[in-house]
Amino acid sequence: MTNILSVIHPFCHLSYILVEWVLLVWSIQLWCKSNSIAMIVLPILLVCSSYDNFVLLVGSLLGEGKLLESLSMLRFLAHYIVVPLFIVIVVELAHRAGADWAGSRFVRVLGWVLAIGLGIYDVATQFVGLELVPETFAGMLRYVAAQPNQLPIITILVNLFVMIIGIGIWRRLKWSWLFVGALVSLIGNAIPTDLVGTVLASVSELILALCMLLTEQRTQYMMAMLKLSTESQQSQLNLQTY
């Protein structure tokens, strides 16, 4: 069983990297069509997530030492900083979906303030003074916190926030995927990695990013349909006037 896991886990992380770079290209394409701020921030998360999976993938090749430890420290730092940025993305998605509460500049700026504040809090409480120790799971060597917390509180709070916004978008656009992605991410990040390794947490964040891209694409489609409908009605009105 251990031999099978030692093949499956590296394959999963390699697959995640490849998929994330595909999603990165897709997010840039969606941004070019809409200039959505959400599609500017999401590529940052995808790059950091692919780096996270890369470090996990090459851990056994690099072996224990300062290089892998330094790469792992950067992996932890990136995670603490960028995960709260999911808040910025969903606020922008809600704004683009036509939610009244997300329409004001104050709320959108508040989303940035909240995300940055949570990132600073996580860095101050989790990263400052962080000590890493090597650990092997399913044949994969990685550095983990010497004294890990019971639960990734900030990550869970961010996912709950995304779920709440996802419910609103579900009701507005008849589109449940953002809520589903946040639910999957919540469950995946709540399962301790010392029991199942890193594949579930990594794929759950990948699924959430995919659902955000699908939501942006759905929003662009709905906006295009609304524009066509408006133009059609205006054209009919002009004919009647003529």
Structure in words:
This protein is mainly alpha-helical and 242 residues long. It is 79% helix and 5% strand. The chain is built from nine helices and two strands, in the order αααααββαααα. It has helices at 2-34, 38-62, 66-82, 85-96, 105-127, 153-173, 177-190, 193-196, 199-241; strands spanning 132-137, 140-145. It has a two-stranded antiparallel sheet. A hairpin with a 2-residue loop joins strand 1 (132-137) and strand 2 (140-145). Helix 1 (2-34) runs parallel beside helix 9 and helix 2 (38-62) packs antiparallel against helix 9. The mean pLDDT is 89.
Put the structure in a nutshell.
The chain has 242 residues and is mainly alpha-helical. It contains 9 helices and 2 strands, in the order H-H-H-H-H-E-E-H-H-H-H. A hairpin with a 2-residue loop joins strand 1 and strand 2 (140-145).
For the structure shown, list the relevant keywords.
9 helices, elongated, mainly alpha, 2 strands, 242 residues
Overall residue-averaged pLDDT value:
89
Overall number of strands: 2
The side-by-side strand order for the widest beta sheet comes to: 1-2
Low-confidence parts: none
Global Rg: 21 Å
The biggest sheet, with number of strands, parallel, antiparallel or mixed sense and barrel status, is: 2 strands, antiparallel
Instruction: Indicate the overall shape.
Output: elongated
SS field, number of helical segments = 9
Order of helices and strands: HHHHHEEHHHH
Instruction: Give the percentage of residues in beta strands.
Output: under 5%
Structural class: mainly alpha
Q: What's the N-to-C terminus distance?
A: 77 Å
Helical content stands at over 70%
